[in-house]
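Progress against Task 2.4 (sequence-to-structure conversion) is shown through the following example record, which the project officer requested during the mid-term review.
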Amino acid sequence: MTIESNDDSAHRLTAVARVRASRWRWRIFTFVAIIIAILALAGRFGAQQGSLEGQIAKVEITGTISTDADRVALLKKLGDDPNVKGVILAINSPGGTTAGGEELYESLGVLRAKKPVVAVISELGASAAYMTAIAADRIYARRLSIVGSIGVLFQTFNAGKLLDTIGVGMDKIASGPLKAEPDIDKPMSPEVRTSLTSLVTDSFNWFVDIVAERRKLDRATALGLADGRILTGRQALDDKLIDAIGGEDEAVAWLESDKKLPADLPVVVRFPVGDKGWGNLGKWLGSEARAAVGLNPDGPVALDGLVSLWQVGP
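Structure tokens generated for the chain above:
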């Protein structure tokens, strides 16, 4: 039978007390960390919403443009929000689908009737992105920004020789001669080319018309600039496709001087909508993984139909 000494008993009690004290310290630390996280999220939410005295809403148009119901709803919300005094469109995009560009143009037209809107093109504002920019009251770009590429594209490919080489044949039953055309296993027929040319021409004429209207150009001048060319910001200024050289600071100064907005309003990013805390952790990890292998971090974007897009290479 082992008899525990008073020293051993005291040592054991001291060790237990230390463990308990350590647990309490960790509990207090965890509690403080949670409070700090809650305050940080609350501060971020408050910054996104802006002050009660007003804000300049910033809408970022980046990457490939396609239709987006959430973006349309947000633009409508900005128009109805008395806290929003003006809107900056921050554009850095090669364009996208003609339907996506049209949707943005029309939605911004409704917004422009309620709030002053100014566009700022950073590196790139081409095709459907330029279609977006002209919906604003004023357009700024850097001297060496890429602007323009006014036009519409329908692109396909003919893999008939490749399929013949590897021994693959294709067949179909269609309700009409133009259904599901063009096929990728044969050259485009004259009938198909005529049909698709009509499609492109109709969209192109609308694009040219709104450029002429919004930039106050006669149609012949707008048509002369609509051969698909890209321009630097400085060239675009000379051709009246933009209003001034500058960036966000110049846009804010214009809103204050010409649209009489109060000075020093905060510029608050309202689109894309900020994350909602840990709920988007999986989405963030997925985006980072796609970016790491060279894919679009926002996931695949299907460009079905006509596109108004400028890009380098095939």
